[in-house]
Specification:
The chain has 279 residues and is of the alpha+beta class. It has 2 domains: 93 residues; 130 residues, Ribonuclease H-like superfamily/Ribonuclease H (Nucleotidyltransferase, domain 5). 40% of the residues lie in helices and 18% in strands. A 6-stranded mixed sheet has the order 11-10-7-8-9-12. It has a 4-stranded antiparallel sheet with strand order 1-2-3-6, with no helix packed on it. Strand 7 and strand 8 form a beta hairpin. Helix 1 crosses helix 2, helix 1 packs antiparallel against helix 4 and helix 6 runs parallel beside helix 8. It is globular and about 70 Å long.
Amino acid sequence: MCGCTCVVVNEADSQFTPVQQFDYVGLHVDLAAKTVSVPNSWYEKTAAVVDSVVVSDEAVVRDVYRVFGCLIWMCLVHNLPMCLLSPALRHWSVLSKGDLSLDSTVVLPDSLRQWLQEQFFSLSHRVSGVGTYDLCRDVDYPIVVCSSDSSSYGAGFFVGEFVNSWEWPAAEAAWHIYSKELSSALRSIDCALTLYPRHDIHLELDNTPSIHTLAHWYSKGAYWNSHLYTMWQRVRDAQVRLSLEYVHTSVHRSDVLSRYPCYTGAPVHVSTYPGRMTL
C-alpha cells in the first residue's frame, strides 16, 4: 500500500503490527504499564558520550553540550524541575559566554564530572507513570486566584479572599527586583497551599522573568534553586495544578500593595484590608 501511494517508509524504525511497547522520538512508551522512560538504544549511545566527558581530563565542548542537552531532555521526559540541573545549567551559561568553538576542549571541575555521572545514571534509569504528567484525581479542584507584586521597598499579594503586604527589611531591600518579585510570588503560593488546601492555584504576575522561572522551576541565581525545588515538591505533594498569567502593571491589582504596603501583619480578609484601593 505504501508503494502504491509513493510513500517512503523508514522500515527499520517503524512498527507494522500493534504493540504495547514502542520507542518514539527519544521515548520508550509502555502502554500496558502506562509509563515512559528513555529507550535502551538512546541510553547506550548517550552513555558513551558521557563517559568521554567524565573520564577524560579534558572534554570537547560539543560533547559537553550534548551531555547537558541529554540531561535536560531526561528532565522533560520525567516532568522534573530544571532546578535539579542547576550545576550543569550554570556551567553551560559560563561556557556559552566564553570565546569557544564546538571543537574546543575544556577542563571540567572534578565535582561537576562526578555530578554529571551520578545524575545521568539516575535519570536514565528512571521510569515515570502517567501521574507524572496529569494529576490523577477523582474530582476537579476549585481554583484560588492569586496575585503578587513587589517594588523596591515593599511587596504584597492577594490569595483568594486574603491579603498581605510588607516593607522589605534592610537585607532583602538590597536584592535585585527579580529576586523580590520571585520571593513575593513564592510567598503567595505558600499562602495558597496553607489557606486553600485542595485548590488549584492561578497566579497573576507582572514580572515575566518570575513567570519564566516558575514555569521551568529554575533560576540563574543559585540562591533560589533550593527554594524552587522545595516549593515544586510541595505543589506536587499537594496534588494541585499551578497556572501562571502575565497581567500588565497598569491593571495588576497587587501593584497597589507593593507601592503602599500599609498592612504588615498576618493575612487578613480582603474587606478589612486598610489600604485597599480600586485601580
